[in-house]
Amino acid sequence: MKRQRVFLAICMAFFIFQSAFALDATLVGKWTTLPYTVPINPVHITLLPTGKVLIVAGSENDPTVRTYRAAVLDLTTGVFSMKDLDRDLFCNALVSLPNGQVFIAGGTKAYDPFYGNNSTNIFDPVTEQFTDGPDMAEGRWYPTLTPLADGMPVIISGLTEYGSTSNTLEFLYGISEGVYGWSNPFVAPFTPALYPHGHLLPNGQVFYSGPEPQTRMLEPDSFTWTDVAFTQYGGWRSGGASVLLPLTPGNFYTPNVVIMGGDENPATSTVERIDLSVANPEWVSVSPMKRSRIYLNATLLPDGKVLVTGGSGIKNDGTTARRLAEIFNPATNGWTNLASAQYWRDYHSVALLLPDATVLTMGGNPNRGVYDKHVERFSPPYLYTKNSSSAVVAAPRSVIKTFPGEVSYGNQFTVTFSGKTPASVVLIPPGAVTHAIDMQQRVVGLDFTVVSAGKIQVKAPPNGAIAPPGNYMMFLVDANGVPSKAKFIHIASL
Question: Is 13's pLDDT higher than 80?
Answer without folding.
Answer: no
